[in-house]
Amino acid sequence: DIKLDAPITVIAGWNGAGKSSIAEALRLAILAEAPRVSLKSEYGQIVHQGAKSGSIEIESDSGAQSLHITVAGKIEDSAKNATAPAAMAYCLDPHLFASLIGNERRQFLFDLMRLDCDGPAITARLLKRGCEQTKVDAIAPTLRAGFEAAHKQAATRATEAKGGWRAVTGETYGGQKAEKWRAPTPPFSEADAVELTGIDKAIVTLESQLGDAQKRLGIAEHEQAQAAKRAQTIAHLRETAQQFAERADLVHKAEEELAGLTRSLTYAQQRAGSKPPEAQTQLPCPECGAILMDSADGNSLVPWKAPEAAPYDPDQAARIPDLQKAIAVQQRVLDRHKQNLDLADQAAKQFKVLEDQASVKPVNPEPIRQTVDTLRADIETKRKRQHELRAAQRALDEADAKTKDARRHHADVLAWSAIAEALAPDGIPGELVAEALDPINKRLAWSASDSEWQPVTIDADMTIRYGGRAYRLCSASERFRADVMIAEAISHLSKLKLLVIDAADILDLKGRGELLYWLETCAEMDELKTCIVLATLKAPVV
Predict the structure, then answer these.
(1) Is the dihedral of CA 525, 528, 532, 534 positive or negative?
(2) In terms of Cα–Cα distance, which of 431, 495, 462 is closest to 121?
(3) What CA–CA distance (Å, rounded) separates 2 from 185?
(4) What φ, ψ does residue 57 adopt, rounded to 5°?
(5) 491 in Cβ contact with 522 (< 8 Å)
(6) Residue of 100, 137, 139, 149 lying closest to 429 (CA atoms)
(7) For 341, how many CA atoms within 13 A lie in the half-sphere containing its CB?
(8) What span, in angstroms and rounded, lies between the C-alpha atoms of 53 and 382?
(9) For 244-375, where are the E strands, in sequence order?
(10) What is the pTM of this model?
(11) Backbone angles phi, psi at 288, to 5 degrees
């Protein structure tokens, strides 16, 4: 029967005392997972020897739940139909993440960061990249089989489109050639030829002008959007900068707390005899030369005398280690508050820079949009006349149809190639991996700094590294550190703020201290609500 009164609870005992059973009981009650048996019919085997039944009861902020098992294997679970968050398993068993294969790790991180990887989400990303709607709709069913299958399908369709172009033209496909290719046309009147040529040139010129206008319109719309985004950023920076005084107050309070702890440590050291009391400053009398010093109340001078040796106080001596630990923790808290204060200061500076930039008004896109509409109308008019001239002769119609057919195949090549490129490993899959890895790797970097352990990183191919070395090449204690830091990052990002760490005695004495100081820092910053550490220790933890 354990009541957790503090954020961090260390449960110690000899081998076989039941420490791991506590961790496994939590997993059984919360996740319906019993590591020591494989079938539910075997659950009765985990009941304590000689008992008829066993039960697990957990009380938390979200309510109470219980699980009761008889020796016959009958199970009563109050949370039978409930589903625990996916991240919960990794918080209760820090070794679980490393046991996954690459694709499983990747999928879990996608789920943890709430990245949509289903068909509709990927098709939305393809459309955002400018991929053709009809082609995206055609490839969508294949996305259920994964990126590799969809990428292969798109590449195959691009190859088929090139074959279609070759069948129409009778020539070998080439991107630049296909862009300019026209079917041969039989002769027709010179006047028609001159007019058609003029229309072709006019369309090219107008399209060039239209492209330039559209580019300027895009720039103007982008600047307008940037101005709106800048306004939002200014508002955010203003809010952060306004927290400067509050954060400065936190720094001041932390400094006062640290100073108070330091004074307590100095007093304890003095009373323990480890640090002699400071002697009063000698003040020679200007009249008689006698050596004087300030009185106890500081209001007069009395004859100087050496300080008396402080008697040894064993109680104060016993306080010294706790005070030293408290000072170390408080120093970390002070450092974090100072970092937050620096962020507020930087926000104020950035706010001034962006506010100055906001004074420059963006170009109004409306006149450019009108120019674009006019050019489009002119191009459309000339295209109509162009079509009339080409329709004058059947041969020209056939040639025009052939040219259009070739262009259609070329457009298909471009469209399918764009989709294949987007579905390649360095396309959308790479974007998703980067979005999933960036938050957890940043959290792991913070943990390495606070714990003073080697940094843990997760590569794009889901390789775990500790201190730059692959996880599988590390020692057992190094893998333990990596597992715990990854589990804490998952706990933080999932906002569960829960961690169960078993077999912490794999660390040496220094490593255990670093572990507890790091966890205490997380608790001080309200980043960890409940942490249970299970270990066999040489002596009780003070």
Answers:
(1) negative
(2) 431
(3) 91
(4) -130, 130
(5) no
(6) 149
(7) 16
(8) 89
(9) 283-284, 291-294, 301-303
(10) 0.53
(11) -110, -10
Contact between 515 and 451 (Cβ < 8 Å): yes
Which two tokens mark 509? 């004495």
The DSSP symbol for 504 reads G
Question: How confident is the model over 253-276, as a mean pLDDT?
Answer: 81
Residue located via tokens 């933080």:
492
Higher pLDDT: 278 or 455? It is: 455
Residue entry with tokens 């620096």: 342
Cβ neighbors of 149 (< 8 A, separation 6 or more) are 142
CA dihedral 88, 90, 93, 94 (to 10 degrees): -140
User: Does residue 439 surpass a pLDDT of 60?
Assistant: yes
Distance CA 417, CA 410 (A): 10
Highest mean pLDDT of the ranges 91-95, 235-239, 290-294: 91-95
The secondary structure of residue 77, as a DSSP letter, is E
The pair of structure tokens assigned to 91 is 């918080």
Mean pLDDT of 348-360: 65
Distances (CA, A) of 214 to 93, 257, 378: 56, 62, 15
Residue 40 confidence (pLDDT) above 90: no
Q: What is the mean pLDDT of residues 8-31?
A: 89
Q: Round to whole Å and give the CA distance between 462 and 209.
A: 48
Helix (H, G, I), strand (E, B) or coil at 174: coil
Evaluate whether 251 touches 341 at the Cβ level (below 8 Å). yes
Paired sense of beta strands 498-501 and 530-535, if any: parallel
Which residues, in sequence order, are CB contacts of 359 under 8 Å at separation 6+? none
Comparing 395 with 518, the larger pLDDT belongs to 518
> Which residues face 70 on adjacent strands?
53
- The values of phi and psi at residue 532, to 5°, are -115, 120
Side-chain half-sphere CA neighbours of 349 within 13 A: 6
